[in-house]
Amino acid sequence: MGRASKGRDVAAATPVVILVRPQLGENIGMAARAMLNCGLSTLRLVAPRDGWPNEKAQRAASGADIVLEKAEVFDSVGEAVADLERVIATTARNRELAQRIVTPRQAAADMRGWIGQGERVGILFGPERTGLENDDMVHADTALNIPLNPQFSSLNMAQAVLLVAYEWITAGDATPPSRMADHATRPATKEELQSLFDHLERALDQSGFLRNKEMRPSMVLNLRALLQRAEMTEQEARTFHGVIKFLSKSKHEE
Q1: What's the rounded Cα separation, in Å, for the pair 14 and 112?
Q2: Which parts of the sequence belong to the tRNA/rRNA methyltransferase SpoU type domain (predicted)?
Q3: Among 46, 77, 179, 193, which residue's beta carbon has the most beta carbons within 10 A?
């Protein structure tokens, strides 16, 4: 996809994304882009290896400048989470710590609930090479594990941010799971579908397709049901009328 225009800040209360000891500016920028794609804009960095600000991060953000401009830098995880009531830590490995472990989907639901109650929430993401250490994990009350191929579960930091952020935005999204693309045309009415079917039935009678009197009733019903299932638009119904008219005219000219 092409480069988008500069994104706008997010007004609603959202989780804080905390990147712990990120090593590459490019990953910070891509994480910022993923955040803004999913409605998150509050970024905190803990001891970024190459310092801050970072030109490579800005280039990789592809327009998510507002996230980088607002980003705060901390020396330790403890300082980065000090003002938060809830902290979730992402991890790909089993730990010695006894913590509640959730999937990204459950974490998103939990975060929606906590933020709805006025609590401030943060998500910790570990450095690219090692992930979070136990000293980082102890600052979290919940661990998040992304279910992936157990033989290959390593994720780039920005990929992990995108997966968790996507679950966050979908948890509050009301988009229906399936819909027809409208393309500026409305669905056909039942009257229009009936008119189309009448036209089709006349054409099929004239062509001799429905000549079998015993089979005709079931064939007519099946064709009618097919047109109903098609969920035609008004434009599609008019196009189908034109197809029937053309085929009927071609048949007469033979």
Answers
A1: 8
A2: 16-166
A3: 77
Query: Do residue 30 and residue 122 come from a single domain?
Result: yes
Residue that the structure tokens 């803004």 belong to: 36
Tokens of 108: 């998103």
Q: Report the pLDDT averaged over residues 1-25.
A: 75
Whether residue 2 is contained in a domain is answered as no
Helix (H, G, I), strand (E, B) or coil at 69: helix
Measured from the Cβ of residue 252, the count of other Cβ atoms closer than 10 Å reads 9
- Please indicate, yes or no, if residue 181 is contained in any of the structural domains: no
Residue 133 has pLDDT above 70, yes or no: yes
DSSP letters, 75-139, are SSHHHHTTT-SEEEEE-SS--SS--EEE-HHHHHHHHHHHHHTT--EEEEE--TTT---HHHHTT
pTM of the model: 0.73
Exposure of 235 in the CB half-sphere (CA atoms within 13 A):
6
Question: Does residue 129 sit in the same domain as residue 28?
Answer: yes
Give the pLDDT confidence score for residue 252 in this predicted structure: 59
